[in-house]
Amino acid sequence: MKEAKLHPEEEARLCLLRELGILDTAAEKEYDDLVSLVASICDVPIALVSLVDESRQWFKAKVGLDADETPRAYSFCAHGILGSDILEISNALEDDRFVDNPLVTGAPGIRFYAGAPLVTESGLPLGSLCVIDVEPRKLTQLQRQALKVLSNQVSTLLELRLANQKLAKSNDDLDDINRRLNEFFRIVSHDLRSPFNGLIGVTELLKTELESLSVAEVRELVSALHKSSAETFIMLEKLMDWSKFEVGSMSYMPVTVQVRELAENAVGILAASLKEKRIEFTIDIDPDVSVLADATMLATIIRNLASNALKFTPNGGSIRIIAQQEHTAHVWISVVDSGVGMTTSVLEMVRSNVSPSSERGTDGEQGHGLGLQLVHQFLAEHGSELEVESDVGKGSVFRFKLPLSNAG
């Protein structure tokens, strides 16, 4: 027995076969009807739609055979997929490739075999439509033509299956896009309304009542105006980052990044809010520590983690940004706060990238759920993950690791 060689494009062929997701699926009438028809036209007891994978040939449709599969080493079809035309064996006992094949010497006792390769539009053969007899014989010209035509029909069914899968995936992608768009519009229509209402209310009061207001009252209104403006700006920043990432205009471009300098710049926008809440804020990072990262994404990650810590840290609390080098040529970057902490259920939501967007901060700060979502997405682009630890009433630690810029 001579085992068939592998197809010249074996990996691509197997990849397409796996992509079809057809192996080990239930019988389907369309395929069953075709094997019944070809068996009748060719006047044979056995007909198969045989798909050849790494180690076996599996029968999507069959007549006259009980087995669902046989080893690839015994497969006639494994030889058939190496050519572009019908492989016809008039008498297997006279062919040195098959004379001692277990499917010839034992059940089902193959003598005659003819198989037309099932070739996709990509030119890759996935198997054969084959007819088998236990007696030597030869196909007529009409039978050969019928076998070719019906094998093309099987190939068409396989192509339609692939097209339907791609269409289903496209529909899933569209559903996902619609879900994200709905989330975007929800944020714009609901969460932006609150800070804008604050801006409008304060400016309206200043416009109509300025002459009657004391200096202390004006100072209080200006403070409220600044708070609403800062919240609105931070939200717009997140919306812009999120929308750029979603439409693919933000791509991962790693460069050498000085972590301390980037962190200082990233959290600059939070300075006034940190001061207002009297937060003890420190950046404990050696100026020489550098990582390989996308600078824009890393700045967004650090800013959003710091903003989240600020939101849930009460007045007079503390926030630290730390960088610690590992022996494995990585740097752990952590944002540590003394905030309210998270319950077990909320902690699991955050770890799973399901942000509890309805949560408000310790000073009534608006929540919208985009910040941590962006952190998860941008870390995934870096091949990293967000790790979170938290104790209710004690605070939280958010950390992730990135490679040193001079690693390896």
Q: What is the total tally of β strands?
A: 13
Mean pLDDT across all amino acids: 86
**Can you summarize the main beta sheet?**
6 strands, antiparallel
CATH topology group of the largest domain = Beta-Lactamase
Annotation field: number of helices: 12
Q: At CATH's second level, what is the architecture of the largest domain?
A: 2-Layer Sandwich
Q: Approximately how much helix is present in the residues?
A: 40-55%
Offer a concise description of the structure.
By secondary structure, this protein is an alpha+beta fold.
Tell me about this structure.
There is one protein chain. The protein has helices at residues 10-20, 29-42, 77-80, 102-105, 141-191, 193-209, 215-246, 259-266, 271-276, 295-311, 344-351, 370-381; strands at 46-52, 56-63, 69-71, 87-89, 112-119, 125-133, 255-258, 280-284, 290-293, 318-325, 330-337, 387-391, 395-403. By secondary structure, it is an alpha+beta fold. The protein folds into 3 domains: 10-168, GAF domain (Beta-Lactamase, 2-Layer Sandwich), CATH 3.30.450; 192-249, no CATH class; 251-408, Heat Shock Protein 90, CATH 3.30.565.10. The chain has a 6-stranded antiparallel sheet. A 5-stranded mixed sheet has the order 8-10-11-13-12. Strands 7-9 form a two-stranded antiparallel ribbon. The longest helix is centred in the middle third of the chain and has 51 residues, at 141-191. The two termini are 51 Å apart. The model has no long low-confidence stretch (mean pLDDT 86).
Short descriptors:
12 helices; 408 residues; Beta-Lactamase; 3 domains; alpha+beta; 45% helix; elongated; 13 strands; Heat Shock Protein 90
